[in-house]
Records
---
Amino acid sequence: MRLEKIVPSARDSDRLTLLFDDGSSLRCGAGELLEFGLSRGTELDEEKFGRLKDACEYYRVRMKAAELTAMKAMSAGELKRKLREKGASEENAGRASERLRELGAIDEEEYARMIVRRCAAKGYGRARITAELRRHMLPAEYWDGALAELPESGDKLDAFIRERLSGKKPDMREKKRVSDALARRGYGWEEISSAMRRYEETAEYPEEDR
């Protein structure tokens, strides 16, 4: 098989299209061109063409990985999953994800902190935030450092209970409803019970509720 033409992309001269005498084409980067010593008229046997095809496929996956990470922060695990969904092989998706982590394009430690800050701002508790870290496929080694930045939860719990109960004296059903809502947000029962006691001890109930 002979390489007939090398066509650079109009948008990026580092992206090339290789046209062969059998009508087939491959897209690659300048790195692949140098690695395989390609120029117009180069003859490739079946084995070398197969290796070039594999290299070009990995190039395509790398470019897609760079595009995805430029759009939003993500973990290496999330990137690998997205690449697999877009047709990349297990090997190429893993290689591309790991390479971007090595280059610093993926910073999972900072990403974990960002998720904790975002969840804390939404009023989530530790259990819910931990579930979010797991959902985003972040390595557990970054969890403790990120969770250590969580602010004290007391004020958020107190504000939530005051808003839900509107200063009224709650009965058992209302207590359960509010407690269940806080549990769904990821707060522990001990935290919830303490906050409920604070509300009952400090709330100024209407005369008819006393």
Note: The radius of gyration is 28 Å.
---
Amino acid sequence: MNKFWGIFVFALSFVSSVYAASLAVLTEDDMISAIKKEFAEEGVDTPMELELFGGKTSYSFENVQKLKVMVSHLKYDEEQNKFSATAEIFADGVAKDKTILNGRYYLLQNVWVPAEDIEKGTVLTEDMLKTISVRENRIKSSHVTELEKLVGSEVKKTMKAGKMFTDRDIGQVILIKKGKIVTAVYKAKGLQITTKAEALEDGAAGQMIGMTNLKSGKKFQARVTGAETVEIQE
């Protein structure tokens, strides 16, 4: 009995393998790839994501060696990101079916984001960042996505890996903190005068900040020129 069942299971497995080998399948991913190619033919070769919500999106045929889908009559609405297209299915070169596909398309853009969690106060370097593809309609005017604008900036709050930066999340590196005692320099006609002063606010390179002269108590404005110096402006 055991030998009989063993032969039966083997035979069933063999039949299943033969059946699977003779079954050709066209998936939704195949449909999407064909539509993307048609978009490229129309001059829209920007990376994109597609969502299908109308039409037949998968096919399977027995005893077929090759399935192919050809897309035509592509129409798309740039304002609503909707599209429609005709997909014709060929099995071994013979037309088998035709369907109208409808959906939405989303153009993608590469943006720079944290490669891992970044602590507040960290000065960004390129190795802390990575690129990901994001739908363009999810990128707001407040997002900062360019590498050159991020590197060298200071993180103002803890950032999670993969999250896009906004202009509130980063800022210039603070060289002088409020309350710090620095050297204030005044230059005029070859004359240079220095004095000690206290910063009344934080300041990054090139920023004007309020200062108090430690000797006279007089308040004045000065430009941050380094971590230990400011330059008094006339």
Note: Confidence is low (pLDDT under 50) at residues 4-20.
